[in-house]
Design brief:
3 domains; globular; single chain; five-stranded antiparallel beta sheet; DNA Primase, Chain A; about 25% strand
C-alpha cells in the first residue's frame, strides 16, 4: 500500500495540473493568473482563478485557498467525504495515474464526445406517459425509477429541437440521458456514484449503465446494495472510476459487465486494476445472467417481458 501523502507536499502540486486531470482547459490568461471554468460550480459557469506564482486559487465568492482547500471543496460539491485526510487520499490517487498503467484493451474512440450539444431546460419528477411506458417495458417500477431518475426536458443547441428523456445525475452535475431511442448526455461525460446503505462499506459494484443497475436493484425487490455503486454511463468513462477505488479500503469489487467481447475486455481491465489493490477480491457477476447479454435483458426475461 502506498503511504499517505503529507500536507506540505500536497500543497505544492500545481493547481493547474489538477484542473487538467479534471479535463478543464484555461479560458484566458492574465500574466500569472489563469482563469478556468470552476469545478466548484455544478453548472461550470463561474470562474476559478489560479495564481501560478503562489499556487493559490480564488473565485467570485471571495473564497481562496491552497490545494488542499480546493480539493476539500471539490469533494464536498461531489457529495463525497471531504476531510483533509480524504483530500490527501484523492490527491495521491490523482498523481499516481494508475489508469495509464493499465492495458489498453478497449477502443473508446467514438464512444462519445466529452462535451454535449444538449442543454437542460428543466427537470422534474417523472410524469410523462411515454417515459413511464418505457420503464414498464424495462421492468422498472415507477417508484424505483423516481428514486434515481428525473424527467429531463432538454434542447439540442445545434438543431433547436426540444425533447424529453430519463436523466441519471453524474458526479459532474450533468445527466446521462436515456429513452427507448437515444442515449445522450448533458454536461461532460461522467460516471455516477451511489452511496451504499452501509456507511464506509467494504464492497463496490460496477455497472455499465443505469438500466443494468436498476434491473439489479429490481431483482433485489427494490432494496439498494449495502455497498457503494459506480455506473459508467459510457465506456469512455472507464478510467474515471479508479480514483474512487484506489486505496479506499474496499475488500470486494463486483463487476456486472456484458457477456460479449467488449464486456470481457472491460472486465479484464478492471481485474488488472483490482490486482493492484491490497486485499481487494474481484467477483464477476456476469455468470449470473448467462446466456443473456446484460443485466437488463436477463431481468426482462425473468419478468417474461421478452422471450
Amino acid at each position: 500500500m502506498v503511504s499517505a501523502m503529507d500536507k506540505e507536499p500536497a500543497n505544492t502540486i500545481p493547481i493547474s495540473e489538477i484542473l487538467g486531470k479534471l479535463d478543464l482547459q484555461p479560458l484566458r490568461t492574465d500574466g500569472p493568473i489563469v482563469h478556468y471554468p470552476s469545478p466548484l460550480d455544478r453548472r461550470r459557469k463561474a470562474i476559478l482563478s489560479v495564481n501560478t506564482l503562489t499556487n493559490r486559487w480564488s473565485n467570485a465568492h471571495h473564497q481562496d485557498g491552497t490545494v488542499l482547500d480546493f480539493v476539500c471543496k471539490y469533494l464536498k460539491i461531489k457529495q463525497e467525504e471531504y476531510t483533509q485526510a480524504d483530500a490527501l487520499r484523492w490527491l495521491k490517487n490523482m498523481t499516481l495515474s494508475i489508469p495509464d498503467q493499465l492495458p489498453d484493451l478497449i477502443d473508446t474512440a467514438g464512444l462519445g464526445d466529452n462535451q454535449s450539444v444538449l442543454e437542460l431546460r428543466h427537470k422534474k419528477t417523472i410524469q410523462y406517459a411515454g417515459l413511464i411506458h418505457y420503464l414498464e417495458r424495462q421492468g422498472i417500477s415507477l417508484t424505483l425509477a423516481r428514486q434515481y431518475l428525473k424527467e429531463i426536458h432538454a434542447r439540442n443547441r445545434q438543431t433547436g429541437k426540444d425533447f424529453m428523456a430519463l436523466g441519471f445525475q453524474t458526479v459532474d452535475g450533468g445527466f446521462s440521458l436515456k429513452t427507448a431511442y437515444l442515449e445522450r448526455h448533458i454536461g461532460p461525460l461522467a460516471i455516477s456514484f451511489i452511496r451504499g446503505v452501509t456507511p464506509k462499506p467494504n464492497a463496490i459494484h460496477l455497472f455499465k449503465n443505469v438500466m443494468d443497475y436498476l434491473s439489479a436493484i429490481s431483482q433485489l425487490n427494490g432494496q439498494g446494495f449495502k455497498g457503494d455503486t459506480i455506473v459508467l454511463n459510457s465506456l469512455s468513462c472507464l478510467k474515471q472510476i479508479f480514483p474512487y477505488i484506489q486505496n479506499y479500503g474496499y475488500r470486494i469489487a463486483y463487476s456486472w459487465m456484458d457477456n460479449d467481447n467488449t464486456g470481457e475486455n472491460v472486465t479484464a481491465v478492471l481485474s488488472t486494476f483490482f490486482k493492484t489493490q491490497d486485499d481487494l477480491s474481484h467477483h464477476r457477476m456476469n455468470k449470473l445472467y448467462i446466456p443473456h447479454r446484460d443485466v437488463s435483458t436477463w431481468h426482462r426475461h425473468q419478468l417474461n417481458l421478452i422471450a
